[in-house]
Write a structure and sequence with these properties.
Distance between the termini: 46 Å
Order of helices and strands: EHHEEHHHHHHHHHHEHHHHH
Shape: globular
Strand order of the largest sheet: 1-4
Number of domains: 1
Structural class: mainly alpha
Helix content: 55-70%
Number of helices: 17
CATH superfamily: Na+/H+ antiporter like domain
CATH topology: Na+/H+ antiporter like fold
Radius of gyration: 22 Å
CATH architecture: Up-down Bundle
Number of strands: 4
Largest sheet: 2 strands, parallel
Amino acid sequence: MPGGNRKNRTFLGRLPLPERAFMLDALRAETVGGMVLLAAAAVALVWANSPLSDAYESVRDFHFGIDALGLDLSVAHWTADGLLAIFFFVAGAELKRELVVGELRHRHTAALPVIAAVCGMVVPALVYGLVATSMGGTWNGWAVPMATDIAFALGVLAVIDTHLPAALRAFLLTLAIVDDLGAIIVIALFFTSTINFPALIGAVLGLALFFHLHDRRRVHGWYWYLPLALVIWGLTYASGVHATVAGVAMGLLLRVARDGEEGRRPAEHIAHLVRPVSAGVAVPLFALFAAGVTVSGDTLGDVITGAEPLGVALGLAAGKVLGIFGGSYLAVRFTGARLSRELAWADVVAVAMLAGIGFTVSLLIGELAYPDPADLEHIKAAVLLGSLTSALLACVLLRARNSKYRRLYEEENLDVNADGIPDIYQRHNADPDSPSEDGPRHGGDLGTASTPERGAPCSEDPHLRPSAPGE
Protein backbone atom coordinates (compact mmCIF):
# COMPACT_ATOMS: atom_id res chain seq x y z
CA MET A 1 0.00 0.00 0.00
CA PRO A 2 1.79 3.13 -1.11
CA GLY A 3 1.62 6.31 0.84
CA GLY A 4 3.14 8.20 3.71
CA ASN A 5 1.47 6.13 6.41
CA ARG A 6 3.06 2.91 5.22
CA LYS A 7 6.10 3.03 7.50
CA ASN A 8 4.30 4.49 10.50
CA ARG A 9 1.66 1.83 11.11
CA THR A 10 2.21 -0.60 13.95
CA PHE A 11 0.48 -3.94 14.44
CA LEU A 12 -0.19 -4.61 18.15
CA GLY A 13 1.30 -1.27 19.17
CA ARG A 14 0.24 0.55 22.33
CA LEU A 15 -3.45 1.44 22.53
CA PRO A 16 -4.65 5.05 22.84
CA LEU A 17 -5.45 5.77 26.48
CA PRO A 18 -9.28 6.00 26.17
CA GLU A 19 -9.32 2.74 24.19
CA ARG A 20 -7.16 1.06 26.82
CA ALA A 21 -9.50 2.28 29.58
CA PHE A 22 -12.56 0.88 27.79
CA MET A 23 -10.82 -2.40 27.02
CA LEU A 24 -9.75 -2.98 30.64
CA ASP A 25 -13.23 -2.21 31.89
CA ALA A 26 -14.74 -4.64 29.37
CA LEU A 27 -12.31 -7.41 30.23
CA ARG A 28 -12.79 -7.04 33.98
CA ALA A 29 -16.29 -8.56 33.89
CA GLU A 30 -15.37 -11.01 31.12
CA THR A 31 -12.48 -12.40 33.17
CA VAL A 32 -14.64 -13.00 36.24
CA GLY A 33 -17.33 -14.40 33.97
CA GLY A 34 -14.74 -16.67 32.36
CA MET A 35 -13.92 -18.18 35.73
CA VAL A 36 -17.62 -18.78 36.39
CA LEU A 37 -17.95 -20.25 32.88
CA LEU A 38 -15.11 -22.69 33.51
CA ALA A 39 -16.76 -23.75 36.76
CA ALA A 40 -20.16 -24.17 35.06
CA ALA A 41 -18.67 -26.30 32.28
CA ALA A 42 -16.87 -28.46 34.85
CA VAL A 43 -20.08 -28.91 36.87
CA ALA A 44 -21.99 -29.86 33.71
CA LEU A 45 -19.42 -32.51 32.74
CA VAL A 46 -19.23 -33.98 36.24
CA TRP A 47 -23.01 -33.96 36.66
CA ALA A 48 -23.68 -35.55 33.26
CA ASN A 49 -21.14 -38.31 33.96
CA SER A 50 -22.18 -39.01 37.56
CA PRO A 51 -24.84 -41.34 38.96
CA LEU A 52 -27.07 -38.25 38.96
CA SER A 53 -27.00 -37.94 35.16
CA ASP A 54 -30.72 -38.69 34.94
CA ALA A 55 -31.40 -35.69 37.18
CA TYR A 56 -29.25 -33.53 34.90
CA GLU A 57 -31.28 -34.57 31.86
CA SER A 58 -34.55 -34.04 33.73
CA VAL A 59 -33.61 -30.48 34.70
CA ARG A 60 -32.21 -29.69 31.25
CA ASP A 61 -35.33 -30.98 29.48
CA PHE A 62 -37.89 -29.54 31.92
CA HIS A 63 -40.39 -27.34 30.03
CA PHE A 64 -42.02 -24.15 31.24
CA GLY A 65 -43.40 -20.95 29.74
CA ILE A 66 -46.52 -19.65 28.02
CA ASP A 67 -47.77 -22.31 25.65
CA ALA A 68 -50.34 -20.00 24.02
CA LEU A 69 -47.48 -17.79 22.79
CA GLY A 70 -45.39 -20.72 21.61
CA LEU A 71 -42.98 -20.19 24.49
CA ASP A 72 -43.30 -23.48 26.36
CA LEU A 73 -39.59 -24.25 26.14
CA SER A 74 -37.11 -26.50 27.91
CA VAL A 75 -34.57 -25.08 30.33
CA ALA A 76 -31.81 -25.71 27.78
CA HIS A 77 -33.87 -23.95 25.10
CA TRP A 78 -34.49 -20.92 27.33
CA THR A 79 -30.79 -20.57 28.05
CA ALA A 80 -29.83 -20.90 24.37
CA ASP A 81 -32.51 -18.63 22.88
CA GLY A 82 -33.21 -16.37 25.85
CA LEU A 83 -30.12 -15.84 27.96
CA LEU A 84 -27.71 -15.81 25.02
CA ALA A 85 -29.70 -12.89 23.58
CA ILE A 86 -28.19 -10.89 26.48
CA PHE A 87 -24.72 -12.05 25.45
CA PHE A 88 -25.30 -10.95 21.87
CA PHE A 89 -26.79 -7.64 23.05
CA VAL A 90 -23.49 -6.81 24.76
CA ALA A 91 -21.59 -7.98 21.68
CA GLY A 92 -23.70 -5.68 19.50
CA ALA A 93 -23.11 -2.72 21.82
CA GLU A 94 -19.35 -3.36 21.82
CA LEU A 95 -19.28 -3.62 18.04
CA LYS A 96 -21.26 -0.37 17.66
CA ARG A 97 -18.85 1.41 19.99
CA GLU A 98 -15.79 0.06 18.15
CA LEU A 99 -17.21 1.07 14.76
CA VAL A 100 -18.04 4.61 15.85
CA VAL A 101 -15.27 5.70 18.25
CA GLY A 102 -13.04 2.66 18.73
CA GLU A 103 -10.19 0.99 16.89
CA LEU A 104 -12.48 -0.13 14.06
CA ARG A 105 -13.43 3.46 13.28
CA HIS A 106 -10.61 4.07 10.83
CA ARG A 107 -9.86 1.85 7.88
CA HIS A 108 -6.12 1.70 8.54
CA THR A 109 -6.54 0.52 12.13
CA ALA A 110 -9.49 -1.79 11.41
CA ALA A 111 -7.94 -3.60 8.44
CA LEU A 112 -5.49 -5.83 10.32
CA PRO A 113 -7.74 -7.20 13.10
CA VAL A 114 -10.72 -7.55 10.75
CA ILE A 115 -8.67 -9.44 8.15
CA ALA A 116 -7.29 -11.68 10.91
CA ALA A 117 -10.78 -12.28 12.32
CA VAL A 118 -12.34 -13.04 8.93
CA CYS A 119 -9.53 -15.46 8.07
CA GLY A 120 -10.04 -16.94 11.54
CA MET A 121 -13.63 -17.75 10.57
CA VAL A 122 -13.13 -18.84 6.96
CA VAL A 123 -10.14 -21.16 7.44
CA PRO A 124 -11.73 -23.24 10.28
CA ALA A 125 -14.82 -23.71 8.11
CA LEU A 126 -12.61 -24.87 5.23
CA VAL A 127 -10.61 -27.18 7.50
CA TYR A 128 -13.88 -28.68 8.72
CA GLY A 129 -15.10 -29.16 5.14
CA LEU A 130 -11.88 -30.74 3.91
CA VAL A 131 -11.68 -33.16 6.84
CA ALA A 132 -15.37 -34.07 6.94
CA THR A 133 -15.92 -34.53 3.21
CA SER A 134 -12.65 -36.44 2.72
CA MET A 135 -13.93 -38.95 5.29
CA GLY A 136 -17.38 -39.25 3.77
CA GLY A 137 -19.12 -36.66 5.96
CA THR A 138 -21.21 -33.58 5.12
CA TRP A 139 -20.77 -29.81 5.31
CA ASN A 140 -23.49 -29.52 7.98
CA GLY A 141 -21.16 -28.37 10.75
CA TRP A 142 -19.01 -25.92 8.78
CA ALA A 143 -20.03 -22.99 11.01
CA VAL A 144 -19.39 -24.73 14.34
CA PRO A 145 -15.61 -24.05 14.59
CA MET A 146 -15.85 -20.40 13.47
CA ALA A 147 -16.38 -18.75 16.86
CA THR A 148 -14.04 -17.50 19.61
CA ASP A 149 -15.20 -17.58 23.24
CA ILE A 150 -13.66 -14.48 24.85
CA ALA A 151 -14.91 -15.32 28.37
CA PHE A 152 -13.50 -18.85 28.29
CA ALA A 153 -10.18 -17.58 26.88
CA LEU A 154 -9.88 -14.93 29.60
CA GLY A 155 -10.77 -17.51 32.22
CA VAL A 156 -7.85 -19.63 30.99
CA LEU A 157 -5.55 -16.57 31.17
CA ALA A 158 -6.65 -15.93 34.75
CA VAL A 159 -6.05 -19.55 35.76
CA ILE A 160 -2.48 -19.61 34.40
CA ASP A 161 -1.80 -16.05 35.68
CA THR A 162 -0.39 -14.77 32.40
CA HIS A 163 0.42 -11.05 32.22
CA LEU A 164 -0.78 -10.60 28.67
CA PRO A 165 -0.07 -7.04 27.41
CA ALA A 166 -3.03 -4.76 26.72
CA ALA A 167 -2.43 -4.78 22.95
CA LEU A 168 -2.68 -8.58 22.76
CA ARG A 169 -5.80 -8.67 24.93
CA ALA A 170 -7.38 -5.94 22.80
CA PHE A 171 -6.53 -7.97 19.69
CA LEU A 172 -8.22 -11.03 21.23
CA LEU A 173 -11.26 -8.93 22.18
CA THR A 174 -11.52 -7.53 18.64
CA LEU A 175 -11.31 -11.04 17.18
CA ALA A 176 -14.14 -12.14 19.46
CA ILE A 177 -16.33 -9.12 18.60
CA VAL A 178 -15.96 -9.68 14.85
CA ASP A 179 -16.51 -13.42 15.39
CA ASP A 180 -19.74 -12.70 17.26
CA LEU A 181 -20.99 -10.56 14.38
CA GLY A 182 -20.06 -13.32 11.91
CA ALA A 183 -21.83 -15.90 14.07
CA ILE A 184 -25.07 -13.91 14.24
CA ILE A 185 -25.01 -13.39 10.44
CA VAL A 186 -24.49 -17.12 9.93
CA ILE A 187 -27.31 -17.95 12.35
CA ALA A 188 -29.70 -15.49 10.68
CA LEU A 189 -28.90 -16.56 7.13
CA PHE A 190 -28.30 -20.30 7.37
CA PHE A 191 -30.34 -21.47 10.35
CA THR A 192 -33.66 -19.83 9.58
CA SER A 193 -35.91 -22.27 7.74
CA THR A 194 -39.36 -20.65 7.74
CA ILE A 195 -40.36 -17.03 8.25
CA ASN A 196 -43.51 -15.77 9.96
CA PHE A 197 -43.71 -12.37 8.25
CA PRO A 198 -46.30 -10.72 10.55
CA ALA A 199 -44.13 -11.56 13.58
CA LEU A 200 -40.97 -10.40 11.76
CA ILE A 201 -42.62 -7.10 10.79
CA GLY A 202 -43.70 -6.68 14.41
CA ALA A 203 -40.11 -7.24 15.58
CA VAL A 204 -38.82 -4.67 13.06
CA LEU A 205 -41.41 -2.15 14.23
CA GLY A 206 -40.37 -2.84 17.82
CA LEU A 207 -36.75 -2.15 16.90
CA ALA A 208 -37.81 1.08 15.19
CA LEU A 209 -39.61 2.16 18.38
CA PHE A 210 -36.53 1.20 20.42
CA PHE A 211 -34.37 3.39 18.16
CA HIS A 212 -36.85 6.28 18.27
CA LEU A 213 -37.05 6.30 22.08
CA HIS A 214 -33.33 5.82 22.64
CA ASP A 215 -31.69 7.81 19.87
CA ARG A 216 -34.26 10.43 18.83
CA ARG A 217 -36.22 11.19 21.97
CA ARG A 218 -33.37 10.38 24.40
CA VAL A 219 -35.79 8.65 26.76
CA HIS A 220 -34.10 7.26 29.90
CA GLY A 221 -35.25 4.54 32.24
CA TRP A 222 -34.86 0.79 32.03
CA TYR A 223 -38.59 0.36 32.70
CA TRP A 224 -39.26 1.62 29.17
CA TYR A 225 -36.77 -0.60 27.43
CA LEU A 226 -36.94 -3.91 29.29
CA PRO A 227 -40.60 -4.63 28.43
CA LEU A 228 -39.98 -3.46 24.85
CA ALA A 229 -36.91 -5.70 24.60
CA LEU A 230 -38.96 -8.71 25.79
CA VAL A 231 -41.61 -8.00 23.15
CA ILE A 232 -38.96 -7.66 20.42
CA TRP A 233 -37.33 -10.89 21.55
CA GLY A 234 -40.67 -12.76 21.60
CA LEU A 235 -41.64 -11.52 18.13
CA THR A 236 -38.21 -12.42 16.75
CA TYR A 237 -38.52 -15.92 18.20
CA ALA A 238 -42.02 -16.29 16.75
CA SER A 239 -40.82 -15.08 13.34
CA GLY A 240 -38.57 -18.11 12.89
CA VAL A 241 -35.36 -16.05 13.03
CA HIS A 242 -33.14 -17.17 15.90
CA ALA A 243 -34.04 -15.02 18.89
CA THR A 244 -30.42 -14.06 19.64
CA VAL A 245 -30.56 -11.86 16.52
CA ALA A 246 -32.86 -9.54 18.48
CA GLY A 247 -30.13 -9.05 21.08
CA VAL A 248 -27.42 -8.02 18.65
CA ALA A 249 -29.88 -5.78 16.74
CA MET A 250 -30.78 -3.82 19.89
CA GLY A 251 -27.09 -3.57 20.83
CA LEU A 252 -26.27 -2.08 17.43
CA LEU A 253 -29.03 0.53 17.86
CA LEU A 254 -27.54 1.95 21.07
CA ARG A 255 -26.32 5.53 20.83
CA VAL A 256 -22.57 6.12 21.05
CA ALA A 257 -22.60 9.94 21.11
CA ARG A 258 -22.14 11.41 24.58
CA ASP A 259 -25.10 12.61 26.63
CA GLY A 260 -23.82 16.14 27.07
CA GLU A 261 -20.24 17.29 26.72
CA GLU A 262 -19.02 15.45 29.82
CA GLY A 263 -21.62 12.69 29.84
CA ARG A 264 -21.17 9.01 29.23
CA ARG A 265 -21.66 7.26 25.94
CA PRO A 266 -24.90 5.24 26.37
CA ALA A 267 -23.55 2.23 24.43
CA GLU A 268 -20.53 2.03 26.76
CA HIS A 269 -22.55 2.68 29.91
CA ILE A 270 -25.30 0.17 29.13
CA ALA A 271 -22.78 -2.49 28.07
CA HIS A 272 -20.90 -1.84 31.32
CA LEU A 273 -24.10 -2.44 33.32
CA VAL A 274 -25.30 -5.49 31.39
CA ARG A 275 -21.92 -7.20 30.86
CA PRO A 276 -21.78 -8.75 34.38
CA VAL A 277 -25.21 -10.31 33.79
CA SER A 278 -24.06 -11.63 30.42
CA ALA A 279 -20.65 -12.91 31.49
CA GLY A 280 -21.55 -13.98 35.02
CA VAL A 281 -25.07 -15.38 34.61
CA ALA A 282 -26.28 -15.84 31.01
CA VAL A 283 -23.25 -17.54 29.47
CA PRO A 284 -22.45 -19.82 32.47
CA LEU A 285 -26.08 -21.00 32.68
CA PHE A 286 -26.04 -21.78 28.96
CA ALA A 287 -22.80 -23.72 29.47
CA LEU A 288 -24.29 -25.60 32.41
CA PHE A 289 -27.07 -27.03 30.25
CA ALA A 290 -25.16 -27.30 26.96
CA ALA A 291 -21.82 -28.82 28.01
CA GLY A 292 -23.21 -31.87 29.78
CA VAL A 293 -21.68 -34.46 27.45
CA THR A 294 -21.19 -38.08 28.40
CA VAL A 295 -17.42 -38.59 28.29
CA SER A 296 -16.24 -42.12 27.64
CA GLY A 297 -13.71 -43.98 25.55
CA ASP A 298 -16.41 -44.64 22.97
CA THR A 299 -17.34 -40.94 22.78
CA LEU A 300 -13.74 -39.82 22.30
CA GLY A 301 -13.22 -42.60 19.78
CA ASP A 302 -16.25 -41.40 17.83
CA VAL A 303 -14.83 -37.86 17.81
CA ILE A 304 -11.46 -39.00 16.47
CA THR A 305 -12.86 -41.40 13.89
CA GLY A 306 -16.06 -39.56 12.98
CA ALA A 307 -15.84 -37.33 9.91
CA GLU A 308 -17.84 -34.36 11.17
CA PRO A 309 -16.75 -34.38 14.85
CA LEU A 310 -13.09 -34.62 13.80
CA GLY A 311 -13.66 -31.75 11.36
CA VAL A 312 -15.03 -29.61 14.20
CA ALA A 313 -12.16 -30.44 16.56
CA LEU A 314 -9.46 -29.78 13.95
CA GLY A 315 -11.28 -26.68 12.75
CA LEU A 316 -10.94 -25.19 16.24
CA ALA A 317 -7.49 -26.48 17.18
CA ALA A 318 -5.76 -26.07 13.80
CA GLY A 319 -8.02 -23.95 11.60
CA LYS A 320 -8.20 -21.02 14.02
CA VAL A 321 -4.44 -20.66 14.45
CA LEU A 322 -3.81 -21.05 10.72
CA GLY A 323 -6.49 -18.52 9.85
CA ILE A 324 -5.68 -15.82 12.41
CA PHE A 325 -1.91 -16.08 12.18
CA GLY A 326 -1.97 -16.41 8.39
CA GLY A 327 -4.38 -13.50 8.02
CA SER A 328 -2.30 -11.33 10.35
CA TYR A 329 0.96 -12.14 8.61
CA LEU A 330 -0.41 -11.54 5.11
CA ALA A 331 -2.08 -8.30 6.20
CA VAL A 332 1.17 -7.01 7.69
CA ARG A 333 3.13 -8.16 4.65
CA PHE A 334 0.90 -6.48 2.10
CA THR A 335 -0.13 -3.32 3.99
CA GLY A 336 3.39 -2.34 5.00
CA ALA A 337 2.57 -2.33 8.73
CA ARG A 338 5.22 -3.40 11.22
CA LEU A 339 4.85 -5.66 14.24
CA SER A 340 5.40 -3.90 17.57
CA ARG A 341 9.06 -4.08 18.49
CA GLU A 342 8.13 -5.44 21.93
CA LEU A 343 6.36 -8.48 20.52
CA ALA A 344 7.17 -11.39 18.23
CA TRP A 345 5.15 -13.48 15.81
CA ALA A 346 5.12 -16.22 18.44
CA ASP A 347 2.83 -13.94 20.46
CA VAL A 348 0.38 -13.77 17.56
CA VAL A 349 0.48 -17.58 17.31
CA ALA A 350 -0.30 -17.83 21.04
CA VAL A 351 -3.31 -15.51 20.78
CA ALA A 352 -4.47 -17.37 17.67
CA MET A 353 -4.26 -20.62 19.65
CA LEU A 354 -6.26 -19.02 22.45
CA ALA A 355 -8.90 -17.95 19.91
CA GLY A 356 -9.40 -21.63 19.10
CA ILE A 357 -11.48 -21.85 22.27
CA GLY A 358 -14.90 -21.66 20.63
CA PHE A 359 -17.00 -22.98 23.48
CA THR A 360 -20.21 -20.96 23.89
CA VAL A 361 -21.15 -19.93 20.34
CA SER A 362 -19.77 -23.17 18.89
CA LEU A 363 -22.09 -25.15 21.15
CA LEU A 364 -25.00 -22.91 20.15
CA ILE A 365 -24.37 -23.35 16.42
CA GLY A 366 -23.82 -27.09 16.98
CA GLU A 367 -27.31 -27.34 18.48
CA LEU A 368 -28.75 -25.57 15.44
CA ALA A 369 -26.78 -27.59 12.89
CA TYR A 370 -27.38 -31.01 14.47
CA PRO A 371 -30.94 -31.39 15.77
CA ASP A 372 -30.49 -35.16 16.21
CA PRO A 373 -29.41 -35.77 19.86
CA ALA A 374 -27.03 -38.60 18.96
CA ASP A 375 -25.14 -36.50 16.42
CA LEU A 376 -25.22 -33.45 18.69
CA GLU A 377 -23.57 -35.39 21.52
CA HIS A 378 -20.55 -36.13 19.34
CA ILE A 379 -20.37 -32.55 18.03
CA LYS A 380 -20.43 -31.18 21.58
CA ALA A 381 -17.65 -33.57 22.56
CA ALA A 382 -15.68 -32.37 19.52
CA VAL A 383 -16.13 -28.72 20.56
CA LEU A 384 -14.90 -29.56 24.06
CA LEU A 385 -11.91 -31.51 22.72
CA GLY A 386 -10.95 -28.83 20.18
CA SER A 387 -11.33 -26.02 22.73
CA LEU A 388 -9.35 -27.91 25.37
CA THR A 389 -6.55 -28.67 22.90
CA SER A 390 -6.38 -25.01 21.87
CA ALA A 391 -6.31 -23.91 25.51
CA LEU A 392 -3.49 -26.29 26.45
CA LEU A 393 -1.33 -25.34 23.46
CA ALA A 394 -1.93 -21.63 24.11
CA CYS A 395 -0.97 -22.08 27.77
CA VAL A 396 2.37 -23.63 26.82
CA LEU A 397 3.23 -20.75 24.47
CA LEU A 398 1.98 -18.02 26.80
CA ARG A 399 3.80 -19.38 29.84
CA ALA A 400 7.02 -19.57 27.83
CA ARG A 401 6.71 -15.83 27.15
CA ASN A 402 5.30 -14.81 30.53
CA SER A 403 8.48 -13.13 31.81
CA LYS A 404 8.38 -10.85 28.76
CA TYR A 405 4.70 -10.16 29.30
CA ARG A 406 5.29 -9.38 32.97
CA ARG A 407 7.86 -6.72 32.08
CA LEU A 408 5.57 -5.15 29.48
CA TYR A 409 2.68 -5.20 31.94
CA GLU A 410 4.73 -3.43 34.61
CA GLU A 411 5.90 -0.80 32.12
CA GLU A 412 2.44 -0.03 30.78
CA ASN A 413 0.92 0.23 34.29
CA LEU A 414 3.67 2.20 36.07
CA ASP A 415 2.25 5.42 37.53
CA VAL A 416 4.96 7.00 39.66
CA ASN A 417 3.21 10.35 40.11
CA ALA A 418 -0.09 8.63 40.98
CA ASP A 419 -2.15 10.86 38.67
CA GLY A 420 -4.22 7.99 37.29
CA ILE A 421 -2.44 8.05 33.92
CA PRO A 422 0.29 5.45 33.27
CA ASP A 423 3.65 7.17 32.86
CA ILE A 424 4.27 5.54 29.49
CA TYR A 425 1.44 7.66 28.04
CA GLN A 426 3.16 10.84 29.20
CA ARG A 427 6.49 10.17 27.50
CA HIS A 428 5.79 11.61 24.07
CA ASN A 429 8.88 10.43 22.25
CA ALA A 430 10.12 7.54 24.33
CA ASP A 431 8.45 4.76 22.38
CA PRO A 432 8.30 4.46 18.60
CA ASP A 433 5.11 2.42 18.97
CA SER A 434 3.35 5.25 20.80
CA PRO A 435 0.35 7.01 19.25
CA SER A 436 2.31 10.28 19.21
CA GLU A 437 4.67 8.89 16.59
CA ASP A 438 2.24 6.70 14.72
CA GLY A 439 -0.15 9.59 14.33
CA PRO A 440 -3.69 9.73 15.59
CA ARG A 441 -5.06 6.21 15.83
CA HIS A 442 -8.32 7.26 17.37
CA GLY A 443 -9.45 10.47 15.75
CA GLY A 444 -8.96 13.10 18.44
CA ASP A 445 -8.50 10.54 21.22
CA LEU A 446 -4.74 10.58 21.48
CA GLY A 447 -3.60 8.92 24.64
CA THR A 448 -0.28 10.67 25.22
CA ALA A 449 -1.22 13.39 27.66
CA SER A 450 -4.97 13.24 27.85
CA THR A 451 -7.22 12.38 30.73
CA PRO A 452 -9.15 9.11 30.61
CA GLU A 453 -12.89 9.22 30.23
CA ARG A 454 -14.67 9.91 33.47
CA GLY A 455 -15.07 6.86 35.63
CA ALA A 456 -13.00 4.62 33.36
CA PRO A 457 -10.13 2.58 34.86
CA CYS A 458 -6.81 3.11 33.16
CA SER A 459 -3.89 2.32 35.45
CA GLU A 460 -5.00 -0.96 36.93
CA ASP A 461 -5.14 -4.38 35.33
CA PRO A 462 -8.30 -6.21 36.41
CA HIS A 463 -6.71 -9.57 35.67
CA LEU A 464 -4.27 -9.36 38.54
CA ARG A 465 -6.15 -7.96 41.48
CA PRO A 466 -9.54 -8.49 43.11
CA SER A 467 -12.07 -5.70 42.88
CA ALA A 468 -12.04 -3.38 45.86
CA PRO A 469 -15.25 -2.88 47.82
CA GLY A 470 -17.60 -0.54 46.03
CA GLU A 471 -16.06 -0.98 42.59
